[in-house]
Amino acid sequence: MRLDKYLSNMGHGSRKEVKVLLKSKAVEVNGEIVRDPKVHVNEHTDLVSVGGEAVTYTEFIYLLMNKPQGVISATEDKYDKTVIDLLGKDEQHFEPFPVGRLDKDTEGFLLLTNDGKLAHELLSPKKHVDKTYFAHVEGVVTEEDTEAFKKGVVLDDGYETKPASLNILDSAVVSKIELTITEGKFHQVKRMFESVGKRVVYLKRLSMGPLSLDPELELGEYRHLTEEEMASLKDRK
């Protein structure tokens, strides 16, 4: 990879800005000052430093976010703030995107990455990746609903959902539940409850596949996945 591309990819400015950086003799490759932007480096074996600080090449980025309400799961939007707007410039530089979508009024677990292959693995209907939600539901949720969800319910467009696991935490005028589904149809959780005559008034995603929402993350906060979390993703492939 060309040195100017390498440095630009690692957030050291545009190609033009990197050329200025190189001319200032601030860049070393394997201990030697390099000023030529066309020099090729091996991103895995060559030691590159800028101003004496080592540059570690990173191709992919993996972020776990606690998405707040009022923010949309998209990379850009003309009218609303997106989850990308919540990231710092260092993370935005990698051009991550949300893996799947959470409704604007839904909060909780959201994975962001620029790894398209991983995103496909997690979103493919054939993979049956579990997604667990916590919800407040207007209406008394009963064991009949649990059995109906276990068999699959018919949505308003005639689609029959795959079996889902409904756990009733509190059956009341406004019930509290946890629901695990293996697919991600548009507004699916809300539409499933509508099919049994009830309405979701609060929705939060708790987990996706082997990853769970970090309870220490405040709404709108995010962090990089840990090595253990990355290993759990690779193990499930």
Automatic annotation (TrEMBL):
<dbReference type="GO" id="GO:0003723">
    <property type="term" value="F:RNA binding"/>
</dbReference>
<dbReference type="GO" id="GO:0120159">
    <property type="term" value="F:rRNA pseudouridine synthase activity"/>
</dbReference>
<dbReference type="Pfam" id="PF01479">
    <property type="entry name" value="S4"/>
</dbReference>
<dbReference type="InterPro" id="IPR050343">
    <property type="entry name" value="RsuA_PseudoU_synthase"/>
</dbReference>
<dbReference type="Pfam" id="PF00849">
    <property type="entry name" value="PseudoU_synth_2"/>
</dbReference>
<keyword id="KW-0694">RNA-binding</keyword>
<feature type="domain" description="RNA-binding S4">
    <location>
        <begin position="1"/>
        <end position="59"/>
    </location>
</feature>
<dbReference type="InterPro" id="IPR020094">
    <property type="entry name" value="TruA/RsuA/RluB/E/F_N"/>
</dbReference>
<dbReference type="InterPro" id="IPR006145">
    <property type="entry name" value="PsdUridine_synth_RsuA/RluA"/>
</dbReference>
<dbReference type="GO" id="GO:0000455">
    <property type="term" value="P:enzyme-directed rRNA pseudouridine synthesis"/>
</dbReference>
<dbReference type="InterPro" id="IPR042092">
    <property type="entry name" value="PsdUridine_s_RsuA/RluB/E/F_cat"/>
</dbReference>
<dbReference type="InterPro" id="IPR000748">
    <property type="entry name" value="PsdUridine_synth_RsuA/RluB/E/F"/>
</dbReference>
<dbReference type="InterPro" id="IPR020103">
    <property type="entry name" value="PsdUridine_synth_cat_dom_sf"/>
</dbReference>
<dbReference type="GO" id="GO:0005829">
    <property type="term" value="C:cytosol"/>
</dbReference>
<protein>
    <recommendedName>
        <fullName>Pseudouridine synthase</fullName>
        <ecNumber>5.4.99.-</ecNumber>
    </recommendedName>
</protein>
<comment type="similarity">
    <text>Belongs to the pseudouridine synthase RsuA family.</text>
</comment>
<dbReference type="InterPro" id="IPR002942">
    <property type="entry name" value="S4_RNA-bd"/>
</dbReference>
<dbReference type="InterPro" id="IPR036986">
    <property type="entry name" value="S4_RNA-bd_sf"/>
</dbReference>
<dbReference type="InterPro" id="IPR018496">
    <property type="entry name" value="PsdUridine_synth_RsuA/RluB_CS"/>
</dbReference>
<keyword id="KW-0413">Isomerase</keyword>
